[in-house]
Design brief:
By secondary structure, the chain is an alpha+beta fold. It has one domain: Alpha-Beta Plaits (2-Layer Sandwich). It is 13% helix and 31% strand. It is built from 2 helices and 6 strands, in the order ββαββαββ. The chain starts with a strand and ends with a strand. The C terminus is likely disordered. The chain binds iron/sulfur cluster (2 copies). One iron/sulfur cluster binds next to α1.
């Protein structure tokens, strides 16, 4: 999936080494933009409202907010 995110906009970064694919964050996302497969967690950044709920709920701190420094970019999630 490819999403477009504007300059200085925040987006969720997934620390794949920490995430154990427990699925807890999927259930709290009000926008339903977090996807979980057998092997991967991904986020549709275009639909994310930056509410931070997924970050707060993750039991292993595998999610964090980061600010983009570049102009509009395409991100594969
Ligand atoms: S809650 Fe944390 S560990 Fe669980 S799937 Fe989400 S990011 Fe991964
Ligand atoms: S910040 Fe909010 S809207 Fe964005 S992925 Fe996390 S829970 Fe969903």
């Amino acid at each position: 999936m490819v999403s477009r995110v504007k300059k200085n906009q925040e987006m969720i970064k997934i620390k794949t080494g920490r995430c154990d694919l427990c699925g807890t964050c999927v259930g709290v996302c009000p926008e339903n933009v977090i996807r979980l497969s057998m092997t991967e967690l991904s986020i549709d950044h275009a639909g994310c409202t930056r509410c931070h709920k997924c970050i707060w709920i993750c039991p292993v701190s595998a999610l964090e907010m980061m600010e983009l420094q570049n102009d509009i970019i395409a991100i594969s999630s």
